[in-house]
Amino acid sequence: GPVAAAGRAVVRRMEAGVVRAAKQVVAIGEEFRQAYRLWGLTTDHVTVIPNWAPLDEITPRPRDNAWAAQHLPAQPELRLLYAGTLGRKHNPLLLAGLLRSALAAGLPVRLIVASEGDGIEILREDLAREPELPVTLLPFQPAAELPDMLGSADVLVTILEPGASRFSIPSKVLSSLAAGRPVLGLMPEDNPAAEDIKAAEGFVGPPTDFGIAGAVGWLRRLHRDPAAARAAGEKGRSLAESRFGIGPITDRFEAVFRRAVPGLAAPAADPGPDAQPRLRPAHAASPRGFLRKVS
């Protein structure tokens, strides 16, 4: 309505003012830079650097692990896992639709969702109409258990609504790739994360019934060919290591810092083969005048 439109205009003016005043801006996607140009801003000081994958924290784990033994039935199933926020950028009923369509196609699937908030409650209410459905709904899990939870799945699922796609790049895709499991995305194909999923031989389809139908066909092929499923997971892990490792991304951030803070010393050109990666905590303070743009 008019109030929401006025609010969006105020927020846009505020963001434009911050971008205009910053010495350097880091955006996680090219879409941000394009939006700034449409707002009439210069973008010579805007650098696009993607998020990095938590490669050390999330590693491929056995499917049958301690977390799976605690939370999932010990029976042959095709496990579809969604872990993360279900907010306004997501339609939780897509997950129910995916489950029902896969079952109707004869696939022995189980849907596992680890989330909290209104989204999972909407999903819970919908699924309660058919209590026999193979579904496991959980709250957010401890960070230490995340690798085993992701590893327990056969396929990791992400969803994103079209209206949120321009300025939202789901970071859970990087965690999914790091976990070494095939990834299924019901999301707009022009989202940068969709390109990563396709590069890892995952599936991307629109967040609609049509997209669900395509996803079920892809799941059927994976279920028939376990070797192809393993290969897709391995390719995802390899992609995460080559494209989203913290080391090269840290180097790009340091280059931005040196532009923002003249006279900042450059790192040694050759730290040696035994040097540890230069890690920076995500909560570390940024130099004054430096803006990190996230989804």
Brief write-up:
This protein is of the alpha/beta class. It has eleven helices and nine strands.
Q: Topology, please?
A:
Elements: H1 2-21, E1 24-27, H2 30-38, E2 46-48, H3 66-71, E3 78-83, H4 93-104, E4 109-114, H5 118-127, E5 135-138, H6 146-151, E6 155-159, H7 172-179, E7 183-186, H8 192-199, E8 203-205, H9 209-224, H10 226-243, H11 246-260, E9 290-292
Parallel strand pairs: 1-2, 1-9, 3-4, 3-6, 4-5, 6-7, 7-8
Protein described:
Helices cover 43% and strands 13% of the residues. It has a 6-stranded parallel β-sheet with strand order 5-4-3-6-7-8, with helices on both faces. The longest helix has 20 residues. It is globular and about 60 Å long.
